[in-house]
Amino acid sequence: METTAAILHADLDAFYASVEQLLDPSLRGRPIAVGGGVVLAASYEAKAFGVRSGMPGRRARELCPQLTFVSGHFKDYQRLGDAAIRVLGDFTPLVERISIDEAFADVAGSIHLFGPAAEIAKAIRRRVRAELGLPISVGVARTKHLAKIASQVAKPDGLVVVDPETELDFLHDLPVELMWGVGPVTKARLAETGVLTIGQLARLPRGSLEPLLGDALGQKLGALAWNRDLREIKTHRRARSAGAQSALGKKPAAASVFRPTLRHLADRVGSRLRAKSRLGRTVSVRVRFADLRSVTRSVTLPAPISATATLAEIAEELVRRVLADHPDEQTISLLAISVSNLEDHSAVQLEFPLGLADEGRRPGAKKVLRVGWSIALSTGSATASDGRRSATRRLHWELSARFPTRSASSPKRIYDRRRERRASWQQCEPFSWHRPMGLERRPVRARASRDHAHDRRAPEDRALSAPTRRRGLRPDDGQRCALSRRADERQLISIRPIAL
After folding, report:
1. Quick one: average pLDDT of 360-373?
2. DSSP H/E element including 12
3. pLDDT of 260-291, one tens digit each?
4. CA distances from 183 to 179, 187, 201 (A)
5. Average pLDDT over residues 105-120
6. Could you tell me if 69 and 32 are in contact, meaning their C-beta atoms sit under 8 angstroms apart?
7. Is the distance from CB of 372 to CB of 366 less than 8 angstroms?
8. Is 102 a catalytic residue?
């Protein structure tokens, strides 16, 4: 166990709003919010009036009438966020970035170069302020969990160093919502049992959190309440989930609205998973209503999936479940799909058609392939040259499927038509034109007819086609040959001299 505080958590304060005030100095000291209909970020001047991220814009203006809304500059957010992370990398290579504006750093191996961890944290804050002009809060502790809590306590624009000898005294006096993993719902459940601080949570009898919060979350919070966190800094961490969302404005909660959107989102998520050879077991959907209140539902499957058809089917079922639980909600404004519990792609075991209830959700089932092609054709995406991936809308399939031959727009039919077109070109009479050196000709595309079936001339006349008659032509210096094609496809190419 580490006995020194060498883990840093750096978090840029009110990042989006601070960047806007940096780009426009006239906004400094004024309450501003990034966004429009919804508050994406608020400055500390606006937070003093109760404005928070995710709040409707109308409610924010009621709380703060002098609030100024600004549009986001996301390229500048990314650029300045990357620059702040590079400052941490100048002190240690062990940097774990967890979002656009925050990261962990392990400076245990840099103490002999730059001094104690507290001095390194001060140097980081000075450089970010001097080079970027942005405020940043840093927490220093023995574990990642406590370092993140320390940075939250240090806000705004502060530094908190937690001594390992007094870390439990510091931790147990803090409110329980500062813990990693405690959201509004978990906070309300703990409040019903009289748990408001981390110390009260730590003093609960063993095994009392699992029935209330579930086995995984109950055991996790029980350990974090005593600062038992064995996680290390991971410089190359893989994504733990993949998701996509779509804002709808205000649309009716009807199947004709959410079904195409869910298929589009499932395509985006599934394509990203298959591109990285990843599969997931847990599928979650989020539905936001007109009043910006969100409801989330999820399901964990026995086998990991990444097929677009299966994701779309599960997401539609979860959305219908949400709407059934909230019959009074008739308008939706956002839909989102997320896949978690990811694992590496493995060999797919084919399934026997036993008629199981979840047969359509097993990767090796025959039904998955049929449903996959039906969704491809319904979205107009089945234009591939093989059965594994399509060429439009990035619709990829993880299993090879037989082409549907009865559909007029199937890939096989499209391929056959292209093959016939190429064969007709090969049957056309070759084109050759001899011209003297130095004489430039106009580049004109000449399209040949499909075949000679439309040519009603006699065979001996058809043999003397335009290209054949043209071979003896030698333009003079004052003339130039121009290719032209008649609208009637019976004559291939005609030639006429043009006076210069």
Report:
1. 52
2. strand 7-12
3. 999 999 999 999 998 888 899 999 999 988 88
4. 9, 6, 15
5. 93
6. yes
7. no
8. yes
Look up residue 371 and give its DSSP letter.
Answer: H
**Phi, psi (deg, nearest 5) at residue 117:** -60, -35
The whole-angstrom separation of Cα 115 and Cα 161 is 14
Which two structure tokens, joined as six digits, stand for 396?
A: 């990829």
pTM score, whole prediction: 0.60
Q: Which candidate in 20, 96, 102, 167 is catalytic?
A: 102
The pair phi, psi for residue 243, each rounded to 5°, is: -150, 170
Rounded distance, CA 337 to CA 319, Å?
A: 10
Give alpha helix (H) positions in 36-136: 44-47, 57-63, 74-89, 111-114, 117-132
Token look-up 């040959």 returns: 481
CA distance linking residue 89 with residue 107, whole number of Å: 10
Residues 440-480 have pLDDT tens digits of 444 444 444 444 445 555 554 554 444 444 444 444 444 43
Residue 1 CB contacts under 8 Å (≥ 6 apart), including other chains: none
**Which residues, 6+ apart, have CB-to-CB distance to 144 below 8 Å?**
7, 9, 104, 229, 231, 233
Residue 226 banded pLDDT, cuts 50, 70, 90: very high
Q: Which residues contact 490 (CB under 8 A, 6 or more apart)?
A: 449, 454, 455, 456
Distance CA 42, CA 18 (A): 9
Domains annotated for the chain, with CATH where assigned, are: 7-165 (3.30.70.270), 173-224 (1.10.150.20), 241-344 (3.30.1490.100), 428-500 (no CATH)
- What is the C-alpha to C-alpha distance for residues 87 and 123, in angstroms, rounded to an integer? 10
> Does the structure show a pLDDT above 80 at 305?
yes
